[in-house]
Amino acid sequence: MNKKIFRFMLTGAICMTTLGIQAQSYPNRPIVLISPVQAASAGDISTRLIAQKMSENMGQPIAIENLPGAAGMIGLDRINRAKPDGYTIASISDSTLTYVPIIQGRKNFDALERLDPISTTVTGTWVLVAHPSLQLKSVQDLIAYAKANPGKLNYGSAGVGGSHHVAMEMFKSATNTKMEHVPYKGATAAIQDVQSGQVQIMFSALSPILGAVRDNRVTVLGVASLERSKILPNIPTLTEAGVPGFIFSTWGAILVPKGTPKTIADKLHAELGKALADPVVMEKLNSAGISPQFISPEQLRDLIRSTTSTMSKVIQNANITSE
Predict the structure, then answer these.
(1) How far apart are CA 263 and CA 13, in angstroms?
(2) Three-class DSSP category at 213
């Protein structure tokens, strides 16, 4: 029995030593970063910019693996199956981590039971846009049109239960209007169709639709933040436009599989902080309407908990379902 205990302890010590050596040399090969969104979407744009700087600083390639679909849950399931060795990490939005599972009926789902938090990366400004053919000049114009034509307006989203869907359902609930939901397999396709007029309106992160705004391919009716956007200073907030207290913003975060060695997680946290503090990265993010945000793993853990609690109430009050 003593020999068995000794062998068990020796094996454990060897494993711990091996993990320690691996952590000290990390990274010594390419890293895969799971991004559960379409390429060229707001989340993908910021993720690639940050990953490129981290790759430069760490001296190893970081390959982005886009896995859109199911409002991010396909990518989340992929990172849940990855080895906790620091060579598969993920950049995931707040919606996928917190309220998408609730809408999709995944009872007792808890992202923090499967993933270890590193830090948030960015927060994004969101806007309410319409196709110019509607000839709407304000949020009140939209509300009046929707009430006069119940169910005739279509709005696009990146998928059932995602941020675009939830934002519009919150708006419908706040304004007592009826509009039809047209879900896409990602934000890029939805944004393309609102520009072409296939769908008439949508909520979108500012970054991926900014070019269309500047080219007048869409009309911005309101900004869904507490204050006006510095990029669009003449556009009122939703509250200013007559929807009191309407605020909607999103954030992204880097997480790793549960059980990733702390030394590796700490390394990723430090490298992420360096990338977000880089002046070029900061300027590019800010110019696209995206704000860098770097916090501790503990703060991210608390943020996931609080967002889940807050948004579960919003979803219940607005009666948002997976349709």
Answers:
(1) 17
(2) helix
DSSP string, 143-210: HHHHHHSTTT-EEEESSTTSHHHHHHHHHHHHHT---EEEE-SSHHHHHHHHHHTSS-EEEEEHHHHH
CA distances from 237 to 140, 150, 220, 232, 307 (A): 12, 24, 11, 10, 22
This model's pTM is above 0.90: no
* Cβ atoms 228, 206 nearer than 8 A: no
Distant-in-sequence, close-in-space partners of 211: CB < 8 Å, separation ≥ 6 = none
The third-level CATH classification (topology) of the domain covering 30-123+249-318 is: D-Maltodextrin-Binding Protein; domain 2 (3.40.190)
**Is the separation of the CB atoms in 75 and 68 below 8 Å?**
yes
- Each domain of the chain, given as residue ranges in start order, spans 30-123+249-318, 126-223
Give the residues across from 127 on adjacent strands.
204, 223
- For 129-182, the pLDDT digits (tens) are 999 999 999 999 999 999 999 999 999 998 888 899 999 999 999 999 999 999
Average pLDDT, the chain: 91
d(CA 280, CA 215) in angstroms, rounded, equals: 25
Please check whether the two domains, 30-123+249-318 and 126-223, share a CATH topology: yes
CATH of domain 126-223: 3.40.190.10
Tokens of 146: 């929707």
- Residue pair 184/193 in contact (Cβ under 8 Å)? The answer is yes
Residue 226, SS3 per DSSP: coil
- Find out whether the peptide bond into 27 is cis, omega within 30 degrees of 0: yes
Task: Dump pLDDT digits (tens) for 179-217.
Answer: 999 999 888 899 999 999 999 999 999 988 999 999 999
The predicted pLDDT at position 5 comes to 58
**Residue type for 215, please?**
D
Phi and psi, residue 76, nearest 5°: -65, -40
